[in-house]
Amino acid sequence: MLLDGDVDIAPGLRAIDTGGHTPGHQSFVIELPARTVVLAGDAAPLRRNIERRVPTGSTADADDGLRADAALQRLADLDGQPGVEVWPSHDPDWHPWRTVINAR
Question: Do 39 and 78 meet the contact criterion of CB atoms below 8 Å apart?
């Protein structure tokens, strides 16, 4: 199935457009009973990208930089909402990932 833009996939699961780093990139919003988790994917690979609004610096095309920045701003804004957690995709030093890594 090809999805474009923001799309409700199932109750409590939504794909949101976070393109820019790569064309068509999507992040996923998961609404849980006590919180909402946003899986940022490559739009925000490190926690500092979200906290400091630091762009990833890598895009497929030169014109995608503005879209990548808008996607990062969107994720950072979501992270600032009460009850919403935006999870980075590749940050081995982010506490929840570090907990899993250390448990091995």
Answer: no
**Residue boundaries of the structural domains of the chain:** 7-102
Stronger pLDDT, 24 or 36, i.e. the higher one: 36
- The owner of tokens 């930089």 is 65
Q: Are strands 36-39 and 84-87 parallel, antiparallel or unpaired?
A: parallel
Q: CATH code for 7-102?
A: 3.60.15.10
Q: Which amino acid is at 81?
A: Q
Q: Report the predicted TM-score, pTM, of the whole model to 2 decimal places.
A: 0.89
Among residues 91, 83, 40, the alpha carbon closest in space to that of 99 is found at 91
Residue 20 has pLDDT above 70, yes or no: yes
